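Everyone, study these two lines:
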Amino acid sequence: ALAVKLDSPGPAFFRQRRCGLEGREFELIKLRTMVAGAHSMQTSLSDQNEVDGPVFKIAKDPRVTKLGRLLRSTSLDELPQLFNVWKGEMSLVGPRPLVMTEMALCPVWRSTRLKVKPGVTGLWQVNGRSGALFHDWIRFDMAYVMQQSLWLDIKILFATARVVLSKAGAY
């Protein structure tokens, strides 16, 4: 957190309202990896979006700080979500928590997705991460909810370690 503060002006943590179990909102916490005010710059960068669906991602996003690139490539920016796990808002494994506007898009998968706590990692993260299409992301989330088990969680946790160490699809 200190390194984030020293790297660029702004808060050390990024906080955002996300949708959790049974649609309850909670505040997701991450280390800030973008310049302060990055969200207000998104409209001017919309033609560079590299992901389909409601998600916005650019591989070489100019809003990401120098330290932010390192934090994202190593997934260290996700560590503060362990506080969300400790508070019972998230699980280690589950569908990634989406913002409310993304959840509003399709009631068909929304109700299924909300049957489990969102996770720090999940099937999407170990099967493509940022390189996966949005419909694949949702398909992985649905598969997780339908097949949820302790054994699947253990497999996903081990696969997450492999993916994080390889830095595959992280941006």
Remarks:
- The longest strand covers residues 13-19.
- The two ends are 19 Å apart (CA to CA).
- The first helix runs from residue 2 to 7.
